[in-house]
Specification:
The chain has 349 residues and is an alpha/beta fold. Helix 6 packs parallel to helix 8 and helix 8 runs antiparallel to helix 9. The chain is globular, with a radius of gyration of 26 Å. Strands 1, 2, 3, 4, 5, 6 and 7 form a seven-stranded mixed beta sheet that branches. Strand 6 and strand 7 form a beta hairpin. It has twelve helices and seven strands.
Length: 349
């Protein structure tokens, strides 16, 4: 896909409003930046939605302009867009009862990670040496190829020992390359790359059962989450909470969590996010059993499925049953947000 014939008017003078509308279509239709710009040129309905009365034959902007636009508005700008989308629902977004659940915003990280990280670190160190025109004593490229093959069969009972030895050797090679490059860099260049070297040393020194391990060189803050799924034992990414209204299923709150905390400890942040976009307070939050431990958060009652009480009347039992059956409505919402609206499309690792 090439954008060499983009008119200067379409490239430079597109207003903020039009970029915002293009960004909304992109999120709703689950398109990449390049696909969005290409389809915008072909689709008159998209153009009319963005305020054009005549069909446009030029591209509205370069795909990378959408990247700059996202950086420009930042998290505060996205928060304002979300607040406006909630406000469009009027009374439906002001329901007293809400449903809360957590999910994992996955990254492109797969198990096992240590071997892959070691190979990535070695390749990055070799790239640094090439950029700085450093003659290394040895590049280890041929040896790395053999270790990569050994790591592929680490689950086989007869190959575990060989795989562990390969993993240990890869970490040793990483440290050797760091020392070799550090000795040959001047003070200014060493200071420039010191942060990268410190990160690589931290990764190479981490053990299997260490806490706060690094699973991605690109995004250090991600962590491993075990949600108890049969088909996926571990998920790598960040935990995110969604808050929806009970009857109308309007998403009124979304928050990502920096730490892998128990679900009950995420309630305060989730309810705070929901309260930002409402005028009425949330009186009751319906959650699953994973939120055990909290009965009330900042005046909001937390309802969790439990054994029936003898003192409950037949009507009360029926109301509780309907309430907790309704809680399951958030599950397909999370599925659609992840598969259809780019929440699960975080592929850089």
């Amino acid at each position: 896909m090439y954008f060499l014939k983009i008119e200067k008017l379409a490239l430079n003078q597109i207003v903020l409003k039009e970029k915002l509308l293009i960004y909304l279509i992109k999120q709703l239709k689950d398109l990449s930046d390049e696909e969005m710009i290409e389809q915008w040129k072909q689709n008159p309905y998209y153009q009319y939605f963005c305020g054009f009365n005549e069909f446009q034959v030029a591209y509205p902007c370069h795909p990378t302009d959408l990247v700059y636009f996202r950086k420009r508005i930042g998290s505060e700008g996205v928060e304002k867009i979300f607040a406006m989308s909630v406000a469009l629902h009027g009374k439906d977004a002001e329901e007293k009862q809400v449903i809360i659940d957590t999910t994992v915003q996955e990254k492109n990280v797969t198990y096992p990670t240590d071997g892959k990280l070691a190979i990535k670190m070695i390749h990055q160190l070799l790239r640094i040496a090439k950029e700085e025109q450093i003659q290394l004593r040895r590049t280890y490229m041929k040896e790395i190829k053999g270790h990569r093959i050994s790591l592929r069969f680490f689950r086989h009972p007869k190959k575990i020992k060989k795989a562990r030895a390969a993993m240990k050797r890869l970490k040793t090679i990483t440290r050797i390359l760091i020392r070799d490059i550090s000795r040959k860099l001047n003070d200014k260049k060493l200071k420039q790359h010191q942060e990268t070297f410190d990160l690589f040393l931290k990764v190479s020194d981490q053990k299997q059962k260490d806490s706060n391990k690094i699973y991605s060189l690109h995004e250090e803050h991600i962590y491993v989450i075990a949600k108890g799924k049969d088909h996926k034992k571990y998920e790598y990414g960040t935990k995110a909470s969604l808050v929806t209204t009970m009857k109308s299923n309007v998403i009124i709150g979304v928050v990502a969590h920096d730490k892998n905390e128990h679900d009950s400890k995420t309630l305060e942040a989730a309810l705070a996010s929901a309260s930002k976009h409402r005028t009425k307070p949330v009186t009751e939050a319906i959650c699953d059993r994973g939120y055990r431990g909290k009965k009330e958060v900042n005046g909001t009652v937390i309802c969790i499925p439990n054994t029936q009480k003898k003192k409950d009347t037949k009507y009360q039992k029926e109301q509780k049953r309907k309430k907790f059956r309704r809680r399951a409505a958030i599950e397909p919402i999370i599925g659609h947000v992840k598969s259809d609206h780019r929440m699960d499309a975080v592929v850089i690792a």
